[in-house]
Amino acid sequence: xxxxxxxxxxxxxxxxxxxxxxxxxxxxxxxxxxxxxxxxxxxxxxxxxxxxxxxxxxxxxxxxxxxxxxxxxxxxxxxxxxxxxxxxxxxxxxxxxxxxxxxxxxxxxxxxxxxxxxxxxxxxxxxxxxxxxxxxxxxxxxxxxxxxxxxxxxxxxxxxxxxxxxxxxxxxxxxxxxxxxxxxxxxxxxxxxxxxxxxxxxxxxxxxxxxxxxxxxxxxxxxxxxxxxxxxxxxxxxxxxxxxxxxxxxxxxxxxxxxxxxxxxxxxxxxxxxxxxxxxxxxxxxxxxxxxxxxxxxxxxxxxxxxxxxxxxxxxxxxxxxxxxxxxxxxxxxxxxxxxxxxxxxxxxxxxxxxxxxxxxxxxxxxxxxxxxxxxxxxxxxxxxxxxxxxxxxxxxx
Length: 398
Ligand code: BEZ
Fold this sequence. Notes:
Elements: H1 3-11, E1 17-22, E2 38-44, H2 51-67, E3 77-83, H3 91-101, E4 106-109, H4 113-125, E5 129-132, E6 149-151, H5 157-169, E7 174-180, H6 183-198, E8 202-209, H7 217-226, E9 230-234, H8 237-249, E10 257-261, H9 269-272, E11 280-283, H10 292-305, H11 311-329, H12 337-345, E12 348-349, E13 356-358, E14 364-374, E15 377-388
Parallel strand pairs: 2-3, 2-4, 4-5, 5-6, 7-8, 7-9, 9-10, 10-11
Antiparallel strand pairs: 1-3, 11-14, 12-13, 13-14, 14-15
Helix pairs in contact: 1-3, 2-11, 3-4, 5-6, 11-12
Bound molecules: benzoic acid.
């Protein structure tokens, strides 16, 4: 950040920010000479296409922090919450508002890959930790990786890569790909192509539309005329719901198998009804994973929010665990940054998705599951790829 931008934020107003305090006052060694509370900047979408994703991440993360007594390494904290609207052009300003004007000690966010790339730049310039609870921009796990950047979710390549093999096994030889024209869409398509073309599959066409446009008709007409064996798409949130409905309405569902990373159906398959039925997806989570933590988390989340749990809630919960474990290791001292990096690098996160660790490029190494919507439920079909790590190509941690 330039000095000018920094001054602007120091002088500016904190519009659109929400502050939530946790716990009562407990004197710690941080009370002497500096503020006792940690200040955490939480940047997520609470409006627009990805609003539901932002809410589930937030509520589940706060749930996990409450389970830990609302303390991080014995330290109280405030969360400064900001709606990033999934708007990349506002990403740098919003991140700077949290780190510079609000003087947050660290950043958590976000959902949208374009926004997180902007956040990562500001966090690097300000030498602050950034923990990513969703956005899978591959670059941040490859050339753009940095020591203080960690992800508790996935790289967009991860859930996409096994999907190519699934389509091949189902007999598909040709595919048309469709997505929003932004980094997450490109990363996801690349993951599918890597396995599908390696196994002999042929890509007939890639169709791109601007984010968050949901006028899918032109693309669907093109798919109908190309007649591929299958279609692979990356869409999520409200856009995914609309796409599945339009795909069915266009008469394509019965003719051409539709695949995607699990973001296509997670959080929206109930509302999609028959439009989601039969769709196979690959993801690092499945509703009916048979482990006690998953069963308990799903029940607790439903009880507390009256909403159904999905992968985004799981990632929020795991981000809470990640914060609790890391800050515990350094007794709440974010200034002990080298020790904190070491602790986080050695993380073993016990999650509703199953245990995961972190790769050298600070991204989860995790099982990817094959799922299929059936009878109004998202069913686990098996492990599509065991302990999958993003290749991390070009990550030097410089
Ligand atoms: C992304 O932008 O990286 C993303 C958004 C929603 C779901 C998954 C990934």
